Amino acid sequence: MQAWQVHENGEPCEVMRLAEVERPTPGDGQVLLRVRAANVNFPDALLCRGQYQIRPPLPFTPGVEICGETEDGRRVIANPALPHGGFAEYALADARALLPAPETLDDAEAAALHIGYQTGWFGLHRRAHLEVGETLLVHAAAGGVGSAAVQLGKAAGARVIGVVGGADKAAVARELGCDVVVDRRAEDVVAAVKEATGGKGADVIYDPVGGDAYAQSAKLVAFEGRIVVVGFASGTIPSPALNHALVKNYSIVGLHWGLYNTKNPKLVLRCHEELTGLAARGAIKPLVSERVPLAGAAEAVQRVADGVTTGRIAVLPQNGATA
Fold first, then answer.
1. Are strands 66-69 and 159-164 parallel, antiparallel or unpaired?
2. Of 130, 217, 141, nearest in space to 177 by CA
3. Which residues lie closer than 8 Å to 162 by C-beta, 6 or more apart?
4. Cβ neighbours around 269 below 10 Å, total
5. How far is Cα of residue 24 from the mean position of the Cα atoms in its chain?
6. Which of 10, 25, 209, 296 is most buried, taking the most CB atoms under 10 A from its CB?
7. Is the pTM of this model over 0.90?
8. What is the pLDDT of residues 123-144, one digit of tens each?
9. In this predicted model, what pLDDT tens digit does every residue of 234-249 receive, in sequence order?
10. What is the DSSP letter of 26?
């Protein structure tokens, strides 16, 4: 079969190589899945760079989120078991963690319903307890993680402010349903959000960016607000001033969604049921901006790493995988 492999750490476009390899053999509790669609996530870039919290042995195949097909023909959503990731014709996954792919979504959309939307649901509902009528601010609102949070926020009855970088991404954020869109490249984010909220600020701030975005969040969080720390796509991990959180009376909450898979897997299943229901009603629909063949995976991962994409890029392996 064909699979992308990383033999050394570095930039995705430099270290990912497409090769002909043997199909992986399932271990105890694992299943072999034919990959129908693999979505590109920022962690794929971090894996290539050797900067992710999980460091699979070299060589490995990246691709942490797929819609796959079991040997008996079921469409499922899975997180592949590294080092046998999703940018390949076949991948391995934990049999106990397979989730049914919603019938209302195609393969690429189904794969994209997983990490970003699970993260958004846990972040907004489990960690921040977002309430109807509250104001939600989403950084990188047109990206894969941010777009999911925007849709989930709207579905929960919140007023959503999206912060983006560039006119093209601003247009995408509006299409996603943001009530207010702020282009950080053309506007003063702090001033624009304060004006949009009458000086109150945002009740919940969803931050997958870190760096300057977090500094803005601290200035914009409302009384008894919650800043949800999701990741650091900017590459800069902020050092919060806890005295500021004290005097302004707000909370800083962290979210590592992957922990729920081991700490409370029943919640992951419950979340998937909620997401499937929202998708069936049309309340959420993953934004898949591009669909590329397997040969385009390395370039796609690099573009996500560079922050120039919107929504998700889906890698679609060719039909008729070879042994």
1. unpaired
2. 141
3. 137, 138, 141, 142, 146, 150, 173, 176, 178, 180, 181, 182
4. 12
5. 26
6. 209
7. yes
8. 999 999 999 999 999 999 999 9
9. 889 999 999 999 999 9
10. P
